[in-house]
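Quick one: structure for this chain?
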Amino acid sequence: MRVIGYYNSFDRQDAINAINLDAITHLNYAFLLPASDGSVYFKDEDDVKRVVKICKEKGIKVYVSLGGACDGEIIISNVFEDIMKDELAFNTLIYNVMQMVEKYEFDGIDVDWEYPWIEYKDHFERLIKALRERADIVNIGLTIAIHRAIEGEVKFNRLESVTDKVVSMVDWLNIMTYDDSDEDNHSSIERAKNSLNYWNDIRKVPKDKLLIGIPFYARPSEKPYYKIIRGGDKSAFDDFWGEDSYNGIYTVKEKALLGKQYGGVIIWAINFDAPKDDEYNLLSIINYLSKKD
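Got it. Here's what it folds into:
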């Protein structure tokens, strides 16, 4: 079972030594940020070096996540759209991403375009094809982070832009089954099952290529889990605390067991967990269940 831990380089970088890294199989370093001219940048390259070194010593594969939602007021989806319309910028982006892979010895690339609209599906295919070709040359992995399955217009735009050809070119799909504004709980087990059903039953994607998302934070406050449990012992188990919804211990267990039937789970973000020696550490629970027969 894959346990993919997204490391949020924008917040709580000092937590790396407190994270239960033994629980994860892969760390996705988020984010390598693109600019409209095809250049790329990290917020803190010293942090990249530190995290990669720690993970490599533990035998954890480290992927670089390209994209994200925003960088301050810059919407990264708009940046991708600009790049894809400019041949020079596109070629520059591919070159620069691979340079970063070589420089930091990443084991793979996770493309996190949040999210290509249907009119950009051909562009998205072109981006994935270019990265797949270069990834194969240097023998590294390639994955994508994708929108959860929901009904209506967004489904057609945000899911059908991930074409069957794209699915065939990547190693697995990281399904972001969180941030749902249409349910009481922004990351319910029902929504995770709906997403798995869409990709497996309707789109015929093999189960092993589907990973479901577990948030280590709440909506709407975006409060991290380690702060939520300061509200009292009960908050570690419930999915609601005040106005917030999140995934408490019972739901995390259920998602981990569900993930074992598929390709595994993804987590945003491992920086937000309780310390590894805390009795309510979520990664410890996921680790136990992932290894249990």
